[in-house]
């Protein structure tokens, strides 16, 4: 209770707002990864996936600035995100897969959520760390970060459930979600320090184009593979 009374709530509010605005795509990833789970497993997938992602995001804050300076790390992460988007779109599950309550299926969903969150959070944690940096006492900065992220957990979980509800009724959202990951990946590639050093700072001006290519590429390839699978 003493910690709560000492908090600078304006800083906490900033951290929560940043996590919601910049981490809104996490709800989409969580929903896409859990959509083929048995209904009894969906809650576990959302809870454990969110918990793992939040814990790793806290760890990332401490190394965020250093990580973002590693050449081609974001580029490799973007490729991983393209693959995740493609796999989430193509993996339709099927009736048998939906009814299967195997632990490995649940674990695969949680793993996908955590990996995707790590990739997408590289930029987000910089903003969160910056907000916490307003606190003069460095010893309490991590406490602010942890508290702010924990408060945002119910919002992420709630958003995931809403997206899952919509996916069950409008399957086209799966394609749109995969396209979102492709968009994020395309922009990440051109903001990588190694890419900027090799092609020059002007390459970032093409981020929107790269995002569009990534989104269209993931959706087109996923749709092509899905249709060829149905024909087979």
Write a brief structural summary.
By secondary structure, the protein is mainly α. It has helices at 2-6, 9-22, 24-34, 39-68, 73-90, 94-99, 103-132, 141-169, 172-190, 193-199, 207-231. The model is unreliable at 94-101 (pLDDT under 50).
Tags for this model:
232 residues; 11 helices; mainly alpha
Detailed description of the structure:
With 232 residues, the chain is an all-alpha fold. Helix content is 84%, strand content 0%. Helix 3 (24-34) packs antiparallel against helix 7, helix 3 (24-34) packs across helix 9 (172-190) and helix 9 (172-190) packs antiparallel against helix 11. The longest helix has 30 residues, at 39-68. The radius of gyration is 19 Å and the shape is globular.
- Shape field: globular
N/C terminus separation: 62 Å
Give the low-pLDDT segments: 94-101
The secondary structure category is mainly alpha
Measured by DSSP, the beta-strand proportion falls in under 5%
- As a whole number of angstroms, the C-alpha radius of gyration is 19 Å
Please outline the major beta sheet. none
Provide the helix percentage.
over 70%
Helix-strand pattern: HHHHHHHHHHH
Number of helices: 11
Rounded mean pLDDT is 77
The number of strands is 0
Per-chain topology:
Elements: H1 2-6, H2 9-22, H3 24-34, H4 39-68, H5 73-90, H6 94-99, H7 103-132, H8 141-169, H9 172-190, H10 193-199, H11 207-231
Helix pairs in contact: 2-7, 2-8, 3-4, 3-7, 3-8, 3-9, 4-7, 4-8, 5-7, 5-9, 5-11, 9-11
């Amino acid at each position: 209770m003493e910690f709560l009374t000492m908090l600078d709530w304006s800083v906490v509010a900033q951290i929560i707002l940043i996590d919601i605005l910049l981490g809104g795509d996490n709800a989409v990833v969580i929903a896409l990864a859990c959509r083929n789970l048995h209904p009894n497993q969906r809650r576990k997938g959302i809870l454990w996936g969110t918990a793992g992602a939040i814990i790793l995001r806290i760890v990332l804050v401490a190394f965020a600035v250093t990580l973002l300076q590693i050449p081609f790390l974001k580029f490799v992460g973007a490729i991983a995100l393209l693959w995740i988007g493609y796999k989430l779109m193509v993996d339709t599950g099927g009736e048998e897969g939906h009814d299967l309550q195997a632990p490995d299926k649940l674990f695969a969903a949680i793993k996908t959520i955590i990996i995707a969150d790590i990739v997408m959070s590289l930029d987000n944690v910089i903003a969160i760390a910056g907000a916490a940096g307003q606190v003069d006492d460095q010893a309490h900065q991590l406490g602010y970060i942890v508290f702010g992220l924990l408060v945002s957990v119910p919002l992420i979980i709630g958003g995931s459930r809403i997206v899952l509800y919509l996916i069950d009724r409008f399957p086209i959202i799966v394609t749109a979600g995969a396209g979102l990951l492709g968009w994020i990946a395309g922009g990440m590639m051109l903001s990588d320090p190694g890419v900027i050093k090799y092609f020059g700072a002007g390459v970032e001006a093409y981020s929107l184009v790269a995002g569009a290519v990534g989104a269209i590429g993931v959706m087109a390839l996923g749709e092509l593979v899905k249709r060829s699978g149905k024909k087979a």
